[in-house]
Amino acid sequence: MQRMASKVIAIAALALVALALFATTAEATGRYKFFTKSLTYRQAHFYCRKLRMKLAVPRSPEENEKILSHIKDTHLFKGSRGAWLGVTRQGTGSNNIWENGYFHRVPDTMLNFAAREPNNYGGHEECVELRPSGKWNDVKCETLLPFVCERLYRR
Protein backbone atom coordinates (compact mmCIF):
# COMPACT_ATOMS: atom_id res chain seq x y z
CA MET A 1 0.00 0.00 0.00
CA GLN A 2 2.85 2.38 0.82
CA ARG A 3 4.44 1.56 -2.51
CA MET A 4 1.25 2.53 -4.34
CA ALA A 5 0.97 5.76 -2.36
CA SER A 6 4.60 6.63 -3.19
CA LYS A 7 3.91 6.11 -6.91
CA VAL A 8 0.81 8.30 -6.76
CA ILE A 9 2.75 11.05 -4.98
CA ALA A 10 5.59 10.81 -7.54
CA ILE A 11 3.14 11.04 -10.44
CA ALA A 12 1.38 14.01 -8.85
CA ALA A 13 4.72 15.75 -8.31
CA LEU A 14 5.68 15.20 -11.95
CA ALA A 15 2.34 16.57 -13.06
CA LEU A 16 2.88 19.71 -10.96
CA VAL A 17 6.37 20.19 -12.40
CA ALA A 18 5.01 19.79 -15.93
CA LEU A 19 2.22 22.25 -15.16
CA ALA A 20 4.69 24.77 -13.75
CA LEU A 21 6.93 24.40 -16.82
CA PHE A 22 3.92 24.84 -19.11
CA ALA A 23 2.81 27.93 -17.23
CA THR A 24 6.22 29.57 -17.51
CA THR A 25 6.69 28.88 -21.23
CA ALA A 26 3.21 29.65 -22.52
CA GLU A 27 1.05 32.73 -22.69
CA ALA A 28 -2.62 32.05 -23.34
CA THR A 29 -4.91 34.57 -24.98
CA GLY A 30 -8.34 33.19 -25.88
CA ARG A 31 -7.95 30.61 -28.58
CA TYR A 32 -4.15 31.01 -28.94
CA LYS A 33 -1.20 29.89 -26.82
CA PHE A 34 2.23 31.38 -27.38
CA PHE A 35 5.37 29.38 -26.56
CA THR A 36 8.81 30.88 -26.05
CA LYS A 37 10.50 27.49 -26.27
CA SER A 38 12.20 27.11 -29.67
CA LEU A 39 11.41 23.87 -31.51
CA THR A 40 11.58 22.59 -35.08
CA TYR A 41 8.37 22.82 -37.11
CA ARG A 42 7.66 19.10 -36.61
CA GLN A 43 8.31 19.28 -32.85
CA ALA A 44 6.08 22.36 -32.53
CA HIS A 45 3.35 20.65 -34.59
CA PHE A 46 3.32 17.61 -32.31
CA TYR A 47 3.59 19.75 -29.15
CA CYS A 48 0.41 21.57 -30.18
CA ARG A 49 -1.28 18.26 -31.02
CA LYS A 50 -0.49 16.92 -27.52
CA LEU A 51 -2.41 19.91 -26.18
CA ARG A 52 -5.31 19.15 -28.55
CA MET A 53 -4.40 22.24 -30.51
CA LYS A 54 -2.68 22.98 -33.85
CA LEU A 55 -0.09 25.41 -35.09
CA ALA A 56 -1.86 28.70 -35.78
CA VAL A 57 -2.94 29.60 -39.31
CA PRO A 58 -4.28 33.13 -39.83
CA ARG A 59 -7.43 33.04 -41.99
CA SER A 60 -7.63 36.78 -42.60
CA PRO A 61 -5.44 39.89 -42.39
CA GLU A 62 -7.21 40.68 -39.09
CA GLU A 63 -6.27 37.29 -37.60
CA ASN A 64 -2.68 37.72 -38.81
CA GLU A 65 -2.56 41.11 -37.06
CA LYS A 66 -4.16 39.69 -33.89
CA ILE A 67 -1.57 36.90 -33.67
CA LEU A 68 1.23 39.37 -34.40
CA SER A 69 -0.01 41.75 -31.71
CA HIS A 70 -0.16 38.97 -29.10
CA ILE A 71 3.31 37.77 -30.07
CA LYS A 72 4.72 41.25 -29.61
CA ASP A 73 2.90 41.60 -26.27
CA THR A 74 4.42 38.34 -25.03
CA HIS A 75 7.92 39.19 -26.33
CA LEU A 76 7.98 35.93 -28.27
CA PHE A 77 10.19 37.27 -31.06
CA LYS A 78 13.88 36.79 -30.43
CA GLY A 79 15.85 39.36 -32.40
CA SER A 80 14.76 39.26 -36.01
CA ARG A 81 13.53 35.63 -35.95
CA GLY A 82 9.86 34.82 -36.30
CA ALA A 83 7.49 32.22 -34.88
CA TRP A 84 6.11 29.08 -36.54
CA LEU A 85 2.78 29.18 -38.31
CA GLY A 86 0.97 26.01 -39.34
CA VAL A 87 1.61 26.47 -43.06
CA THR A 88 3.82 24.22 -45.21
CA ARG A 89 4.75 23.96 -48.89
CA GLN A 90 3.34 21.06 -50.91
CA GLY A 91 4.67 20.72 -54.43
CA THR A 92 7.85 21.97 -56.08
CA GLY A 93 9.07 24.63 -58.45
CA SER A 94 6.39 27.01 -59.68
CA ASN A 95 3.78 24.49 -58.57
CA ASN A 96 3.81 25.72 -54.94
CA ILE A 97 0.72 24.93 -52.93
CA TRP A 98 0.65 26.14 -49.34
CA GLU A 99 -1.32 23.99 -46.91
CA ASN A 100 -2.39 24.44 -43.32
CA GLY A 101 -1.01 21.11 -42.11
CA TYR A 102 -4.32 19.29 -42.57
CA PHE A 103 -4.21 19.03 -46.38
CA HIS A 104 -6.38 22.10 -46.79
CA ARG A 105 -5.00 24.54 -49.29
CA VAL A 106 -4.44 28.06 -48.03
CA PRO A 107 -6.05 30.33 -50.68
CA ASP A 108 -3.60 32.59 -52.50
CA THR A 109 -5.59 35.58 -51.25
CA MET A 110 -4.75 34.58 -47.65
CA LEU A 111 -1.00 34.24 -48.19
CA ASN A 112 0.94 37.06 -46.55
CA PHE A 113 4.52 36.55 -47.74
CA ALA A 114 7.08 39.35 -47.60
CA ALA A 115 8.40 40.82 -50.84
CA ARG A 116 10.57 38.30 -52.76
CA GLU A 117 9.17 35.49 -50.62
CA PRO A 118 8.64 32.60 -50.72
CA ASN A 119 12.04 32.10 -52.32
CA ASN A 120 12.84 28.51 -51.21
CA TYR A 121 16.43 29.62 -50.57
CA GLY A 122 18.75 26.65 -50.98
CA GLY A 123 15.85 24.49 -52.13
CA HIS A 124 14.82 23.36 -48.64
CA GLU A 125 12.44 26.00 -47.24
CA GLU A 126 9.16 24.14 -46.79
CA CYS A 127 7.74 25.74 -43.63
CA VAL A 128 6.49 29.23 -42.73
CA GLU A 129 7.37 31.68 -39.97
CA LEU A 130 5.54 34.87 -39.02
CA ARG A 131 8.16 37.64 -38.96
CA PRO A 132 8.11 40.64 -36.58
CA SER A 133 6.99 42.73 -39.58
CA GLY A 134 3.77 40.68 -39.77
CA LYS A 135 4.81 39.17 -43.10
CA TRP A 136 5.44 35.48 -43.75
CA ASN A 137 8.75 33.90 -44.73
CA ASP A 138 9.55 30.39 -45.91
CA VAL A 139 12.29 28.74 -43.82
CA LYS A 140 13.83 25.31 -43.29
CA CYS A 141 11.57 23.16 -41.14
CA GLU A 142 14.57 22.21 -38.97
CA THR A 143 14.99 25.82 -37.81
CA LEU A 144 14.40 26.31 -34.09
CA LEU A 145 11.66 28.89 -33.48
CA PRO A 146 9.06 29.79 -30.86
CA PHE A 147 5.52 28.95 -31.94
CA VAL A 148 1.83 29.70 -31.66
CA CYS A 149 -0.86 27.06 -31.11
CA GLU A 150 -4.58 27.60 -31.58
CA ARG A 151 -7.61 25.63 -30.47
CA LEU A 152 -8.72 23.04 -33.00
CA TYR A 153 -12.32 24.16 -32.88
CA ARG A 154 -13.70 27.61 -32.37
CA ARG A 155 -16.18 27.97 -29.57
Characteristics:
155 residues, alpha+beta, four-stranded antiparallel sheet, 8 strands
Distance between the termini: 44 Å
Helix fraction bin: 25-40%
* Mean pLDDT, all residues: 76
The whole-angstrom Rg is: 18 Å
Q: What this model shows, in words?
A:
With 155 residues, the chain is an alpha+beta fold. Helices cover 30% and strands 26% of the residues. It is built from three helices and eight strands, in the order H-E-E-H-E-H-E-E-E-E-E. The strands form two sheets. A four-stranded antiparallel sheet has the order 1-2-8-3, sandwiched between helices. Strands 5-4-6-7 form a four-stranded antiparallel sheet, with helices on one face. Strand 4 (83-90) and strand 5 form a beta hairpin.
